[in-house]
Specification:
This protein has nine helices and seven strands. By secondary structure, it is of the alpha/beta class. It has a single domain, classed as NAD(P)-binding Rossmann-like Domain (Rossmann fold, 3-Layer(aba) Sandwich). The protein has a seven-stranded parallel β-sheet with strand order 3-2-1-4-5-6-7, with helices on both faces. It is globular and about 50 Å long. The protein starts with a helix and ends in a 10-residue tail after the last helix.
């Protein structure tokens, strides 16, 4: 068997929402752990920044697919993945729209419905078509990992729509955890109990807020952990966010600053 053929048969990992901040961190954590990565996201500056930052990583492949909004989108993605020679061992789903401030009582009920359609239903559509695909991977245990934020555990004043939607995604993960057990796929949600530190919020960020790479490392640790095998919801812990023995040579945060269009000295770039 040739080296190229052997490499194509090495199981890889799919990252949905790779162009987002958390998705960027998951991609970085997977690559530094030595896993081939297929990063799925919308074509645009953020995917361009991802490709540029990891240009020297032969294990990264980008798939400009667009948004998953329906069963039809997810079915089309699954069909494309089935045509690829490399099998999948895991899927990481970091999907969602930006949080909007405002009280539930001050907004029409239709806004919550729109938020659920934008942030909950894509998770269900993706899982419906990608969980069976993972079940075909012939891995001892395939993994499907969602990532949730702190607004899902307790209501955030002024961000009620995100809290309700996040809680629904959390419950979806628990249900999928049970339903996917018979498929040989472990579904889990990494619950991050603090906001993510980003270049945009760096001035106001608390010291204990994790960055995207730390969250990515914690999520990737679920692929090898056995202590959390029975838990559908796994809390983020800094203990699980340590780098592997071999890390990427480049500075990960530089790419996040480039994506945000800002400089470390606080001046906005042209």
């Amino acid at each position: 068997m040739s080296a190229a053929m052997k490499d194509s048969l090495t199981p890889g990992v799919l990252v949905l929402g790779a162009s987002g901040t958390v998705g960027f961190g998951v991609v970085g954590a997977l690559l530094e752990a030595g896993s081939p990565v297929l990063a799925v996201g919308r074509d645009g500056p953020r995917m361009g920044a991802l490709a540029e930052h990891f240009a020297d990583e032969p294990g990264l492949e980008l798939l400009h697919f667009g948004c998953i909004q329906s069963d039809r989108d997810a079915e089309r993605l699954a069909a494309q993945l089935r045509e690829r020679p490399r099998p999948l061992r895991a899927v990481f789903a970091s999907l969602g729209t930006p949080m909007q401030s405002g009280r539930l009582l001050d907004r029409p009920a239709t806004l919550l419905m729109e938020k659920l359609e934008a942030d909950l239903l894509p998770h269900l559509a993706a899982a419906r078509h990608l969980l069976p695909l993972l079940a075909e991977s012939n891995a001892d245990t395939a993994h499907y990992v969602l990532i949730g934020g702190p607004h899902a555990e307790r209501g955030w004043s002024g961000y009620g729509h995100a809290s309700v939607t996040g809680a629904a995604v959390r419950m979806l993960a628990q249900v999928l955890h049970e339903e996917a057990h018979g498929l040989g796929v472990r579904v889990q949600l990494l619950s991050v109990d603090k906001p993510i530190s980003t270049p945009d919020n760096l001035v106001n960020a608390c010291a204990e807020w994790p960055n995207a790479l730390a969250v990515g490392r914690s999520a990737v640790s679920l692929l090898t952990r056995t202590d959390a095998a029975a838990k559908p919801i796994v809390p983020y812990s800094p203990r699980d966010a340590v780098p592997p023995s071999t890390t990427l040579a480049c500075d990960f945060e530089d790419a996040l600053w480039a994506v945000a269009g800002a400089r470390r000295n606080g001046r906005t770039s042209a």
